[in-house]
Amino acid sequence: MTQLEMARQGIISKEMEYVAAKEKVSPEFIRQGVAEGTIVILKNKNRKDSNPVAIGKGLRTKVNASVGTSPDSTSLELELEKLQVAEKAGADTIMDLSTGGDINGIRKEILAKTKLPVGSVPIYQTAIEAIAKYGSIVEMKAEDIFATIEAHAADGIDFMAIHCALNFDVVNRLKKQGRTMDIVSRGGAFLTGWMLHNQAENPLYTQFDRLLEIAKKYDVVLSIGDAIRPGCIDDSLDRAQVQGLIIAGELVDRAREYGVQVMIEGPGHVPVHHIHSTIQLQKELSNQAPYFVLGTLVTDIAPGYDHITSAIGGALASAAGADFICYVTPAEHLRLPTAADVREGVIAARIAAHAGDLAKGVKGAAEWDLAMARARKSLNWEEQMVVAIDRERAEKIRSERAPLNSSDDVCTMCGDYCAMKVVSQYLGVPAGEC
Amino acid sequence: MTQLEMARQGIISKEMEYVAAKEKVSPEFIRQGVAEGTIVILKNKNRKDSNPVAIGKGLRTKVNASVGTSPDSTSLELELEKLQVAEKAGADTIMDLSTGGDINGIRKEILAKTKLPVGSVPIYQTAIEAIAKYGSIVEMKAEDIFATIEAHAADGIDFMAIHCALNFDVVNRLKKQGRTMDIVSRGGAFLTGWMLHNQAENPLYTQFDRLLEIAKKYDVVLSIGDAIRPGCIDDSLDRAQVQGLIIAGELVDRAREYGVQVMIEGPGHVPVHHIHSTIQLQKELSNQAPYFVLGTLVTDIAPGYDHITSAIGGALASAAGADFICYVTPAEHLRLPTAADVREGVIAARIAAHAGDLAKGVKGAAEWDLAMARARKSLNWEEQMVVAIDRERAEKIRSERAPLNSSDDVCTMCGDYCAMKVVSQYLGVPAGEC
C-alpha cells in the first residue's frame, strides 16, 4: 500500500511517525493530511536506508536543491560534491537533473550517497537517449518514456516531475495567446516539440493510468511538471498557464483516487503582485495539493542574483501557502552552478522558506527568531553564531573586522555607541541579563 | 521658498523639471505631488552642483546607501571608496552616518565628492561630542543638538533623520509594553537615555518649530527618524511602534503647514505578513507622507545574509507603497561594511525596489523586464548582458564556464537541450528572430 492508501485506512505508518516527530506534530495530524492529499511523504518503497520527508499544509516549507550533469559538464565527482554541499547547507531534498555523461550511473550514485529524498525528471533522459537512438527527440516512443520512468522508480527515486498536464488544449491556447517567451520548461519543450511534430497527443496525458500504476507500485510521489510555466514576468498568469493548472487539477483528482500521492509544480517568473493569486489558484484548482514552486523569480533583470530574486518570490509564495520551494543559484540563466553557487542557493531558499513559515505560523518558526533576538539583546555573540542559519558565514564576516577601540561585546558598526548597550543603562534591562 | 511652498503657489521649479524628466512624468505631476506632500525633492538650497532626486507616490522607488566611519574604523579614504562603489552600483542617495574620526571633515568631503543627495543623522555627532565635552551623552544640551543640525544644513545636507517623534508618550508605552529588544535605533537610544536621565521631554519634540525653521531656511527634507522601530520580528507592530507613528503623523501635518518637506522613516525587522499593514498604517496616519524604510528584514536568523532578508522585505514594502528603501549589506549585525559589502547591498536593494515597482506599476518598470525576456528568447547574450542590472557580475559568471560541447548560443545549464532552442523549432518562432 502507498502512504495515501494506508492513511485512508486509518493506518499510521512508521514513515508518518518519523516525519511527525521531525515536524513536532502528531502522527495523526500527518495521517489526516496524507489521507486528504494536503500532505505527501517522499519515500520510495524500493529505497533502503533513506529518511522520509513530508511536504504540505501545516508543515515547515521544504527546500529542494537540484544537481546533475549537463552536456558541457559530465563529472560525477563534481555533482557528488554539490550533493554534499547542498545537504550540509540544509537542503531537504535533492533532484538529479543529469543530462550528460552516464545518466544511469550518476542517479544510482546519488541515491546511494544521500539519505535525503531524491527526485528526477525522467523525460530528460528519454529525450537524450532518443537523440542517440533515433537521431531526434521527436522520434522518441511512448514505450521509451514509460520505460525510463519505471527504471527511475525501480532505482528508488522518491518523487518525479512528469509533464502530464500538457495536452493540445494547453498548446493550442499557448499559440492563440501569443507569449513573449513561449515555453521555458525543458520537459515541456521536448514534449511540445514531439506533439507538434507527430501531431499526436502527449502520451503522459493519454496514458496517465499507466503512469499511476508505476507510481503506485513504488509509492513514488508524482510531481506534475509545470510544462507551461511563465518564463518571464510578462507571461505570468496568462491563459496558457491557467489552462495547464486546470488540467493539473483534474489529474490530481485521478491520482488521489488511484491511491497515488501527488503534488503540483509551479512557476517560474512571477511578479510580486501575482504571487498570492498564483498560489491561491493552484490550491483551489487542485483541492489543496501541495505546491512545489520552482522560483518564484520576481524580476527578469538580475542574472547573477537570481538566488535573491527567487528568495523574494519564494518567501511570498511560502507565506501564501506554497509547501516546497526549489532553490535557485546565482548561476541561473548564465551557466551550470558550481558547488559554491549551490551553497548560496540553498541558504537563500532556506531564508525564504523560513520567512514564509513565520508568516504562515508554522510551529517552531517564531521561536528561532526569538532566540536570535534574545542573543542580540544580551550582546551574546557566541549564542548569535550558534543560532545563525549559517554559522560559518556569520563568524567569518564578524572576524574580518573585530572591534579595536571598543569593547568586545559590541561590533564595529556602532562600537560602544551600540543602541543595545546605551538603552540597557537607562531602561533597567542590563545587557547580558535579559 | 522651499519646493513645497513653490509647488503650493503653482510654481514649477527647475528642480521639479529636472526630476520630472528623470522620472518620465510631467513637471505638473511632480508639482502636484510636492504640493500635496506625497512627493519630496531632495535638494538643499546651499548645495551647489548636485542633482536633485524626487521620492514619493508614482515615482521609481529609490535606494539609499549609508556610509561613514565608526569608532573602530575612522578612515576617510575607505568611506570615499564606499561612496564611489555605491554610486557606481546605482544608489540614488547617500547617507553619511560617521561616528568616528573628523566627522565634520568627512561630511564636507562626501558632499564635495558626489552629486547625489546626501543625508545625515546629526544626533550621532551631538552625542559623540557630548561625551568629549561633558563626559556623557546624557549631559548634551538642546543647544548642542540644534547647533549640529544647523551646521549640517549649512554644509548642504539634503535630508536629515531627526528623532522628533519620540516623547514620553512613546517611551512610557514602550516600558508598559515590554519589548524583546527595546530600542535598536541609535538616535532613539541616545535620546531615550537623555530623557530618562534628565527626566525631561525630548527637545526635538518640544522645540519642533525650531527644527522646522532650520529645515525651511535650507529646504532640508525632514526624515522623521524611527526611534522606536522594532529591532526583531517579535517586536513588530507593537503599541510603542504604533504610538510613534501617530506622533510622527502629527508632526508631518505641522511640517507641511510650515512649508517644510517631510518624510517618515520606518522599520526595521518586520515579518512578511506584517509588511502591508505596516506600510498602510504609516500612509494613513501621516496623510500619505513618503515612507523611507530601513529594511525591512523579514527574519532575524540570517546574519551574513541580511541583504537578502531585507531584499525580501524591501520588495514587499515597495510593492505596498514604500517610496525609499535603505540598503542593508551582508555585514549587518556583524561589523562595519566593506566596499564589497556596499556593492552587494546596493544591488540587492535595487532588485527589491524594482520588484516593488513592477507590482506598483511604476512607469517604465515592466519595459526593463520585457527587454531581458526578449533578449533571452532570442538567445542574444550580448543584449542580456547589456540589460542586466549588474553587467559586470553577469559577464563574470557566464564566462567562468562557457559551453564546450554545445553551441555558442546556449549556456552550460542545458547546453543544446535549451528549451528556447527546442521550442523555436516547433512553434514557428525561430530563436534569434523574435
Please state the average pLDDT score of chain A: 94
Summing up helix and strand content along with how strands pair, one would put the structural category of chain A as alpha/beta
Level of helix content of chain A? 40-55%
Total helical segments of chain A: 19
| Overall morphology of chain A | globular
Largest interface: A-B, 110 and 110 residues
What name does CATH use for the topology of the largest domain in chain A?
Answer: TIM Barrel
Distance between the termini of chain A: 53 Å
What does the largest sheet of chain A look like?
8 strands, parallel, barrel
CATH superfamily of the largest domain in chain A: Radical SAM ThiC family, central domain
Subunit arrangement of the protein? homodimer
Overall strand count of chain A:
10
Number of domains of chain A: 2
Q: Order of strands across the widest beta sheet of chain A?
A: 3-4-5-6-7-8-9-10
Share in β-strands of chain A: 5-15%
Question: Which short descriptors sum up this protein?
Answer:
homodimer, 434 residues, alpha/beta, TIM Barrel, 2 domains, two-stranded antiparallel sheet, 19 helices, iron-sulfur (chains A, B), zinc (chains A, B), ThiC/BzaA/B (chains A, B)
Would you mind describing this structure in some detail?
The structure is a homodimer of 434-residue chains. Helix content of chain A is 52%, strand content 9%. Chain A is an alpha/beta fold and 434 residues long. The first copy, chain A, has two domains: 60-360, Radical SAM ThiC family, central domain (TIM Barrel), CATH 3.20.20; 365-433, no CATH class. An eight-stranded parallel barrel of chain A has the order 3-4-5-6-7-8-9-10, surrounded by six helices. In chain A, strands 1-2 form a two-stranded antiparallel sheet. Chain A is globular and about 75 Å long. Residues 429-434 of chain A have low confidence and may be disordered.
